[in-house]
Write a structure and sequence with these properties.
The complex is a heterodimer of chains A (about 260) and B (about 350). Chain A has helices at about 35-50, 65-75, 95-105, 125-135, 190, 195, 205-210, 245-260, and strands at about 1-5, 10, 15-20, 25, 30-35, 55-60, 80-85, 110-115, 140-150, 155-160, 165-170, 175, 200-205, 225-230, 240. Chain A is α/β, with parallel strands linked by helices and about 260 residues long. In chain A, β6, α2 (about 65-75) and β7 (about 80-85) form a beta-alpha-beta unit. The longest helix of chain A has 17 residues, at about 35-50. The relative contact order of chain A is 0.16. By secondary structure, chain B is an alpha/beta fold. Chain B has 2 domains: about 5-195, Rossmann fold; about 220-345, TPP-binding domain (Rossmann fold), CATH 3.40.50. In chain B, about 25% of the residues lie in helices and about 25% in strands. Chain B has helices spanning about 30-45, 65-70, 90-100, 115-125, 235-250, 255-260, 290-295, 325-345, and strands at about 20, 25, 30, 50-55, 75-80, 105-110, 130-135, 135-140, 145-150, 155-165, 170-175, 190-195, 205-210, 225-230, 250-255, 280-285, 300-305, 320-325. In chain B, a hairpin with a 5-residue loop joins β9 (about 145-150) and β10 (about 155-165). In chain B, α3 (about 90-100) crosses α4. Classes of the chains: A alpha/beta (about 260), B alpha/beta (about 350). β15 of chain A pairs parallel with β18 (about 320-325) of chain B, so a sheet runs across the interface. The complex binds flavin-adenine dinucleotide (2 copies). One flavin-adenine dinucleotide sits at the interface of chains A and B.
Chain lengths: ~260, ~350
């Protein structure tokens, strides 16, 4: 089975700081990582390859620095990686991003596409459905387990709030991997070193893809940010104390909450 | 102005009406869709247009009147055998087909698990813009377009997003942020039976489904929540919180750090990348009060903070705060409740 995994290169949210005054992100010095959900997508793809053979190709649309992320993917065991990078792709919303990804994938040989459920930076969870729509292939979100059934079919299990569901999908298909669905494997140095010796990471610009400028980047994006503003503060009472006698304070608080009809006992 | 050749040419002026997609859950209208009807009414009155409700499924016609009682002026119904089982692409193409025919200006979908799965496909089919996870909506005073407001990465800053020149403008909304409108059985409206164009199959088949009960009230429905963070120190901390929750009739929830540590499951995470809660009471225990966490408790009526650090930002965002170690404060609260209960039964 030939599998394509879409990965996004995102700021590491565990080390992001926010300027409390301006409310903006302090991005400088913040390292980027592969979007955490996408590691699960990679793991599912690589497990399928281990069991059924085939190939795994990782692709990302990003600035050149995302090459580090693709090296990570190669280090996990991907066979090939493609970095889509071009100034005309900048400023893309999800319609334009998914178009560029879908056009890239349609140039590759593939049976299955895996994406993460959503990203940690803008977390729209649009891309999976949109790529499937451009390619007219079946798709499923919230996937936790996958198996190849042979005969051009796969089985996928997904977890909803109150149910497990199992599906059969006809290949080619797209699956969005849920967070915590696998234990993503570590990078193997011997794999990663291939990035140095072989031309294993390809860089594609719009010269390679030849997409219409009107369909990609800012021009291919119907959504625009009209303005930004601050989240209005919620008015709260802010009655805070450091009690000398904890039990007395606890009793005062519980009585107060009962008086305010927030608590019934 | 030239546009992408993959997009069909449209005239935005032909598009009128604010639609709300009504998800059917176990034979009744889901809360999320009702919340969207409320939003739609508000926008429609500002834009002087109608509110459309969309029902897709098998046997859903009987719900049309309910949709009207909750605010729809027109209900578009696709009631057919082939919609018995929900499949994302099937429902998406049905909704897209109705939108092509009836040309609404806006489609609102609650961001339930299904909503988030199929709505981007609708937008793509129509080659239009979609804004995710909105927490408020407004009509831009200058351009008169509907804008969806959503948090940016930091959650301090919010972006007001517009879909330029493409219609319908599509939005998913964060569940539970908007109130459910009043049901008014005196309302009247029009019921329109439709036959959306869909394919015969979408290459996907449900083969098995196992319902389970988490044994608890989902946190978005709970009246009282006792929420724990990294400050609990270990999973055992939740045992104490659980005991407190039990005596006051509440449920437990947690911060992202508590979820990441594996102390509590993700369906109980409160915040920007978790859920918005609307409880009457919210106890934040060992939670520092990061903006992304606070984002999820904006709709809580009363926030009580318990933290040993007097400078924790949660104390600037609470109604009541007790500075102290939770291992002392929580048992004291349990004791206080039990004491008052005993007094009541005497
Ligand atoms: C604060 C903010 C809010 C935004 N809101 C919107 C909005 O409401 N609507 C809109 O259309 N756009 C929006 N955008 C733009 C959007 O973030 C970009 O289009 C982005 O490239 C893809 O969206 P995502 O990160 O939400 O992806 P998601 O749809 O959440 O990603 C799902 C999966 O798709 C794959 N994927 C995503 N991006 C890439 C990529 N570049 N390369 C390879 N694989 C990828 C990954 O597997 C990922 O796990 C917003 C951007 C910001 C910064
Ligand atoms: C894009 C993005 C999205 C995010 N989404 C979410 C989200 O949805 N939900 C969310 O919660 N977070 C989210 N976060 C993470 C958020 O920024 C914080 O890191 C997180 O909320 C902190 O969790 P915490 O308060 O449990 O832990 P900490 O910040 O580590 O706070 C622990 C607190 O416990 C107190 N404490 C320690 N010991 C005790 C004791 N014995 N008794 C009492 N108090 C004690 C400490 O004083 C401290 O204030 C997101 C971050 C980003 C960047």
């Amino acid at each position: 089975m030939d599998i394509v995994v879409c990965i996004k290169w995102v700021p590491n949210t565990t080390s992001v700081n926010i300027d409390q005054k301006t409310g903006t992100l302090i991005r400088s010095g913040v390292p980027s990582v592969i979007n955490p959900h996408d590691l699960h997508a990679l793991e599912i793809a690589l497990t399928l390859k281990d069991r059924f053979g085939g190939s795994v190709t990782a692709i990302t649309m990003a600035p050149p620095s995302a090459k580090l992320g693709l090296e990570h993917a190669i280090g996990m065991g991907c066979d090939r990686a493609i970095l889509l990078t071009d100034m005309v792709y900048a400023g893309a919303d999800t319609l334009a991003t998914s178009y560029t990804l879908a056009k890239t994938i349609s140039k590759l040989k593939f049976d299955l596409i895996l994406v993460g459920q959503e990203t940690v930076d803008s977390s729209t969870a649009h891309i999976g459905a949109q790529v499937a729509s451009w390619l007219h292939i079946p798709y499923l979100y919230y996937v936790v387990d996958v198996n190849y059934l042979g005969d051009g079919k796969i089985w996928a299990k997904r977890l909803l709030e109150d149910a497990y569901e199992e599906y059969e999908l006809t290949l080619p298909a797209l699956l969005a991997a849920a967070m915590h669905s696998t234990h993503p494997r570590r990078v193997k140095l011997s794999y990663k070193l291939r990035c140095k010796s072989e031309q294993i990471i390809e860089v594609w610009s719009n010269k390679t893809l030849g997409l219409e400028a009107n369909c990609v980047g800012l021009k291919g994006s119907p959504t625009i940010v009209r303005k930004t503003s601050f989240v209005p503060e919620v008015p709260r009472k802010k009655i805070v104390c450091k009690p000398k006698d904890v039990e007395q304070a606890a009793e005062w608080l519980i009585k107060r909450l009962i008086e305010e009809r927030l608590l019934k006992i | 102005m030239s546009i992408c050749s993959e997009w069909d040419k449209i005239d935005p002026r032909e598009y009128r009406g604010i639609w709300a997609y009504l998800e059917v859950e176990d034979g009744v209208l889901g809360e999320g869709g009702l919340q969207m009807l409320g939003v739609a009414r508000n926008l429609a009155s500002q834009k002087d247009t109608y509110v459309g409700g969309v029902l897709i499924g098998k046997g859903v016609s009987s719900l049309a009147r309910e949709a009207i009682y909750y605010g729809a002026d027109k209900v578009f119904i696709a009631d057919d055998e082939k919609f018995e089982e929900y499949y994302a692409a099937l429902y998406a193409e049905a909704l897209a087909s109705l939108a092509k025919e009836h040309k609404p200006e806006v489609i609102l979908v609650s961001g339930t698990m299904r909503g988030r799965e199929f709505t981007p496909y609708v937008a793509n089919t129509l080659r239009t813009g979609i804004t995710a996870d909105c927490t408020s909506f407004e009509v831009d005073p200058a351009v008169k377009d509907v804008l969806g407001v959503r948090p940016t990465f930091g959650a301090y800053l919010i972006a007001h997003i517009r879909t330029l020149n493409r219609r319908p403008a599509i939005f998913t909304a964060r569940p539970n942020v908007f109130p459910t409108p009043e049901r008014n059985p005196a309302r009247e409206g029009e019921i329109i039976h439709t036959q959306p164009k869909v394919a015969d199959g979408y290459g996907v088949k449900l083969v098995n489904k196992k319902r389970f009960s988490r044994g608890t009230v989902p946190i978005e429905k709970a009246k009282i929540l006792v929420s724990g963070g990294k400050g609990l120190g270990s999973r055992d901390g939740f045992t104490i919180l659980q005991e407190f929750a039990k005596v006051i009739g509440g449920e437990i929830s947690g911060s992202r750090k508590a979820v990441d540590a594996g102390w509590i499951t993700h369906d109980k995470q409160v915040g920007q990348t978790g859920k918005t809660v609307r409880s009457d009471l919210y106890f934040a225990v060992g939670i520092s009060g990061a903006v992304q966490h606070l984002y999820g408790i904006r709709e809580a009526r009363c926030v009580v903070a318990i933290n040993k650090d007097p400078d924790a930002p949660i104390f600037d965002n609470c109604d009541y705060g007790l500075i102290g170690d939770y291992t002392e404060v929580i048992p004291a609260l349990i004791k206080a409740v039990k004491k008052l209960q005993a007094r009541k039964t005497e």
